[in-house]
Design brief:
Strand content: 15-25%
Oligomer: single chain
CATH topology of the largest domain: Rossmann fold
Radius of gyration: 23 Å
Structural class: alpha+beta
Number of helices: 5
Strand order of the largest sheet: 1-2-13-12-9
Number of domains: 2
CATH architecture of the largest domain: 3-Layer(aba) Sandwich
Distance between the termini: 77 Å
Length: about 260
Amino acid sequence: MFIVAGPQTPLMQSEIDWISQYIESGHNMLFMLDPNVKTGLEPIIEKLGVVLEDNLVLDPESHFWADVSSPAVTKYNRHSITDGLTLTFFPGVRSLSPTDVRVSNTNVRPLINTSLKSYGETDIAQLGFNDGVDDKGPLTLMVIVQRNPGYGKSAAAIAAELRGETIDEPPAPEVTGPPSRIAIFGDSDFATNSFFHIMGNGKLLLSTINFLTKQENLIGLEPKSLDIPRVNLTNTQMKGTFFLSIILIPALMAIIGIAVWWRRR
């Protein structure tokens, strides 16, 4: 397995060609590609059926602490990677989208999505959702691609085959090689030393690596580390806690006190 973790400059063409050949040879890959960085890997990602959007995801509803550019996620699509996963957050992340035309020998499965109120900001100089320009949430932050090179039929041919029919179409180019697994994140910062140990970020990275190395039996068996106990909340959870502890409960106690005083008066 090979990991491309947050390149900040374009890769050399020889490196891009090597990565492309590495995937075509049936090897597994992990891409963690930050927003606003052109790496030269975009054509390779599109061949896997995924588009790296040129945006920055902002989530006013669910974010880590007070940073709307750090979307926080508590609900995930079902997969062995996300089984039992707690809150994760992504400081500065781009969104991922499927290609307009489905790639016949790949299966793209979104795993992590933002809330309904999130959006993909395309112009950070003018923050704010611009309808028709910025993508509206939920937005995908991570996908798993199952690549099966020996399966070169188009979607229409597959559907016709399931119906017991045949259709005339040009033969698909012969593609050889064993199946491979590719994971794509729109961010790499979530896995840095600053955020790896917080909530589920480290578990997400290790579970993804175990899946890509086909060691699913190790998912959830990450080594224990000694951390200072702390509670990490999303912005929505912090507002709810503030309202409950500072406003609602004191108000109820005041009302009960007034009622008791009035009755004894």
